[in-house]
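Entry 14. Structure prediction run on the chain below.
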Amino acid sequence: MENNNLDEEIFDMGEDGLNCSYCIFKSCSPTGECNGECMAGEDEINDLDDSFEFIWGIVSWDDLSGSEANLYTMNDIDIVRDKESNKYFLEIETIYEFEKEIGKYLYVRDLLKALDKFMDDNGYEKKELGFYETFCGPIEVSNENGFDTIEELYAYHASRFRGYLANFEYFHKDLIDEYNKKKEEA
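Output returned:
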């Protein structure tokens, strides 16, 4: 299983750990065949295979399949292509309950690092949203409609990730300073 390099300390596992809450999209079997332990039936899994192509992802550290990231694993972040529309989509896992507010920041920070690494490793151009693209278009301001290219997908989502991180840093500088201090002391 790929090491996703996300800080495990940021999650509140609770007594029972974490479970996937939408098995209709994630198979409980690494082979992609429903083994009856989730809500997905064989038809839903075949529909998923017929509809989407898995491009890239980071398997969640609490995924139990033992597989590398794919359409059926629980992924912290992934990119898929809709085969019919030829559009790209990015999703992040938001099921986690974070023990501390800083955990959300660290999670998004690490997801952005992973996305940047994917772009670099695969020779994709990292585009930025300019002033007019940010406030006027032309990129649809919605992941719902998908993106024509991985570069457009990156520009939109990296901008959102960086915006969240900057906003957190502005309003929670004390939490970041406290986290960095504890990290230095460790």
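The longest helix spans residues 150-171.
Filed with the rest of this week's runs.
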